[in-house]
Amino acid sequence: MKSLAVAVCLSASTWTLVSARTVPSDLAMLLASAGRYVQSFERDFAIVISEETYRQRIDVDQGSLSSKTISRELQSELLFMWVPDDRQWTAIRNVLAVDKKRISDGGLESVLKQPLAERDSRLHLLAEHNAQFNIGSIYRNFNTPTLVLQFLDPDYRPRFAFTVEQRDETINGASARKITFKEMQRPTVIVERGEDRPSSGAIWVRPDDGTVIRTSLNVIGSLKSDATIVVDYRRDAKMNMWVPSRMEEHYHAVATDNPGGRMNRATRFNKISGVATYTNVKRFETSGRVIQHH
Description:
The chain is α+β, with helices and mostly antiparallel strands and 294 residues long. It has one domain. Helices cover 16% and strands 47% of the residues. It has four helices and 16 strands. It has helices at residues 12-19, 25-44, 108-112, 116-130; strands at residues 5-6, 47-61, 67-83, 88-98, 101-102, 160-171, 174-183, 190-192, 195-196, 199-205, 212-220, 225-236, 241-255, 268-283, 285-286, 289-290. An eleven-stranded antiparallel beta sheet has the order 5-4-3-2-14-13-12-11-10-7-6, with helices on one face. Residues 1-22, 256-267 and 287-294 have low confidence and may be disordered.
């Protein structure tokens, strides 16, 4: 299957045009508040390690031929990292156990203590190695829980069209206002083999301070794939901030052995779903100071 990848493509000339759009005052104030919150989140959540339980399931339907279901559970340590130079979030998963069978004793913290060049190289290799534990034919590397927060960052915001609901909702125990977004500019943040894949979705923001409570991301891939990712946040007393608590993913893909791409009896419909939960979230620190990525 085709792969989806995150690409940061910022065009100042294009942004000038988008910024000229008229934005309702109530929406403008809410976006400004959320933008300040996201910038603060980028500083406070810059390098964080969490325990993750990730349950995946794939349903393969071959029509009248056959169908099957495959499931897997991963226990991992997950690194959240904000990369200032690239203005984007990344997440590195280090799988510790597969279906309760221990395969590693960890090691993310030891990697982060390495010199910068060696650290980045080892993190890249770690990400590639652990991708093998994902089930299904869709290679997915844009399911970073904090990805949608980028869209509220002032550097990204002009790329999107936003609308706001007029009523608050109760989300995760908090009163939140729903903001919908649709990516308008090219190249898009997410690309698939060099082709633009526009993002759309919704963000639930607390009106009084811009805190993000939930995000929902929809990505339409090729004619044969699409994805939906919903992330919930919770208040963490130890971190003194709202942190990712749960991510739910749904992918749908069509694979066919027919060179012309036409559906026939050999066509395979793959539905991949996943639920990840995050606990024991902690900042990575050394000598009393958080390491910053440059």
